[in-house]
Amino acid sequence: MSSFPQTSNNTITRLPKRGEYDRDAIYAILDEALVCTVAFVRDNLPVQIPTGFCRMGDKLYIHGSVGSGYMRALAEHSVNVCLSVTHVDGLVLARSAFHHSMNYRSAVIFGKTSRVTDEDELYKALEAFTNKVQPGRWDDVRQPDKGEWKATMVLSISIDDASGKVRTGPPKDDEEDYSLDTWAGVVPLKLQRQTPIPDELLKNGVELPQYLK
Amino acid sequence: MSSFPQTSNNTITRLPKRGEYDRDAIYAILDEALVCTVAFVRDNLPVQIPTGFCRMGDKLYIHGSVGSGYMRALAEHSVNVCLSVTHVDGLVLARSAFHHSMNYRSAVIFGKTSRVTDEDELYKALEAFTNKVQPGRWDDVRQPDKGEWKATMVLSISIDDASGKVRTGPPKDDEEDYSLDTWAGVVPLKLQRQTPIPDELLKNGVELPQYLK
Question: Is B16-169 in CATH node 2.30.110.10?
């Protein structure tokens, strides 16, 4: 296990005990997230875009249309970005309003963009995007043809600086509040899959694949 | 119903049919989200912070400790921020890798920060934060005392520019792919509450309140 060095940029200053710098722990938070937000500076102003992403090794990848304005802006140079993901794991209901909180796992990454032009890396990224939406999916679908390749822009983002922040467990109340008649505890939250809805145009006889059961 | 004017800043250029500028629709996307990310510029570089938030009327609110570095940075002047929320509603599994997608509802807001000093607005914001975590909660808990008030910084964010982006419905495949033997459809996702976990230190005899049943 390795850790990201703590710099003035990534160090959690508020509630530092919630800070997480271990690489594997941060990668696990990233890998579980379906979407991230990518922030960058445009005309000296902050902008952010919610988007799908994936990780391969020590790089993050986003993709979009070659016609997308922000993708083109991010592809132009090595652009500084800040990327984050957050999982909300529970509502933390304390006895006092002040100590209400949420259980969560978040990761914030600082890095630079780079357009992926190497065909092998590009292809692997497309496979990773598809299998991130649904593990096992890539081998089951029609893979991209030349025209689709050319319509898709893939950017890699270096992970220069990273930090995670995690809260777990019950509420923490002030000593004198534990005697109050107020219910306190955690309401866990989970992003759960519902029953798959087949496309109305699904070809007759095509069954739900094993990986979706 | 009113709409946000479309400017070069907020107009959805990629897949414009997914763009949403109606105020009520965007506010509904915001109100359902427990956390947002707030992006700002620090030393010419993009930074973003995941945080809880709430909306009252045409303003968004975030809060944190008066000791928080980024809260203090955002409180110093009227700072330009970009705030976003995203709900992932489903995995869209098409017959081709290229048309894989997600169903989602996102909102991106451009505005400026302002420190809330008016006591009435501050108090209402704290109530709104608590009731956002759990509707009905505020009336059931010990409300903030003077010391807690002073430890909490609340910032309002004006909603100067806003846009939403929404995808719903089944996959869209290329005409020739509909004859493939590949399963296609949507796997809906829902952030679902699990059974509440009472605090181990809960006072004897305190029952789960009605609003949590």
Answer: yes
